[in-house]
Amino acid sequence: MTKPKFAAMSKIELKRYLLENRNHTEAFHALMDKINAEPNPKFYTIDEIGELQKLIEAKRTRENL
């Protein structure tokens, strides 16, 4: 069996891989590296929770198209 090339995978591919291989720490670290490399992460306060929920629902809708 060949080892997957995690660095070449997209975030979506890594997430799918991790759903099937939940204990694979190397894949998890590769995903975290990709997430941490993204510029300007946005953090939400309790007062902004409604906005965060709208963003999550919009992203889910886009990914299911």
Question: How is this structure best summarized?
Answer:
By secondary structure, the chain is mainly α. It has helices at residues 11-20, 25-36, 49-63. α1 packs antiparallel against α2.
Radius of gyration: 15 Å
What form results from the Cα inertia axes?
elongated
Indicate the proportion of strand residues.
Answer: under 5%
Q: What portion of residues is helical?
A: 55-70%
Elements, N to C (H/E): HHH
Keywords:
65 residues; mainly alpha
Could you characterize what this model shows?
The chain is mainly alpha-helical and 65 residues long. The protein is built from 3 helices and no strands. Helix 1 (11-20) packs antiparallel against helix 2. The termini are far apart. The mean pLDDT is 87.
List the helices and strands and how they pair.
Elements: H1 11-20, H2 25-36, H3 49-63
Helix pairs in contact: 1-2
